[in-house]
Specification:
By secondary structure, the protein is an all-alpha fold. It has helices spanning 3-8, 12-25, 30-42, 46-59, 64-76, 80-93, 97-109, 113-126, 131-143, 147-160, 165-178, 181-208. 81% of the residues lie in helices and 0% in strands.
């Protein structure tokens, strides 16, 4: 299988080895270093990923993708201030939706809820059908105590992406906090059903490969 396909199947160890083999042949292969850092991050090896990122920066410090991977690693290590610096650098280089949502997650973690909400509404102005942004907005509004607005956002996320289990799970929590236990249970079951179907599908793909 192609290396990036291995990553999509969560076969990170195989992808890491293939990237390392490529770098053994061409040590200055920046794209391979960048992808290796991403694979190490996906495998939960955050410190190793950061070391690899330093190698990439020595060759090219102007890649939005590598700054984003650094931000993700720092976020996972709960180094939120440094993560925000990194993701803002990524956005300055490449203003992607992914990087902007990582910024929102960092702002949320730092309880900068107003800033997070402003950024999310800006994202939705650019792409009204971005379900992940609707879901994140629901989480931010929930933490601001705006439960009905939060529920409406997560419902919108499920309308755009009907198999968005995280949004259904968040709806379950929000409805429970609103005191609507029937809706909470219904959405919770929906999240579980979607996750079970996804697990079976991923298992089937792994067996085929």
């Amino acid at each position: 299988l192609p290396i990036l396909a291995l990553m999509s199947l969560a076969r990170h160890a195989e992808a890491i080895k293939d990237f390392q083999d490529a770098l053994a042949i061409i040590p200055s292969f920046v794209e391979a270093i960048t992808n290796l850092a991403a694979a190490l991050y996906s495998d939960g090896r955050f410190e190793d990923s950061l070391q690899t990122i330093d190698q990439a920066f020595a060759l090219n410090a102007h890649s939005g993708k590598i700054w984003l991977t650094k931000a993700n690693c720092l976020f996972a290590l709960k180094q939120f201030v440094e993560a925000e610096v990194a993701v803002r650098r990524s956005i300055a280089l490449e203003k992607t939706f992914e990087a902007r949502e990582v910024l929102v997650n960092i702002l949320h973690a730092r309880t900068k809820l107003d800033e997070a909400e402003v950024e999310l509404r800006a994202i939705l102005e650019d792409d009204l059908d971005r379900s992940s942004a609707w879901n994140l907005l629901g989480l931010v509004l929930r933490d601001k105590g705006q439960l009905h607005e939060a529920a409406a956002c997560c419902i919108k996320a499920t309308e755009v992406t009907p198999d968005f289990s995280e949004a259904f799970s968040n709806l379950s929590i929000i409805f429970r906090e609103c005191g609507d236990l029937e809706e909470a249970e219904k959405n919770g079951r929906q999240a579980i059903d979607i996750d079970r179907k996804s697990t079976r599908l991923n298992s089937s793909h792994a067996n085929i490969s």
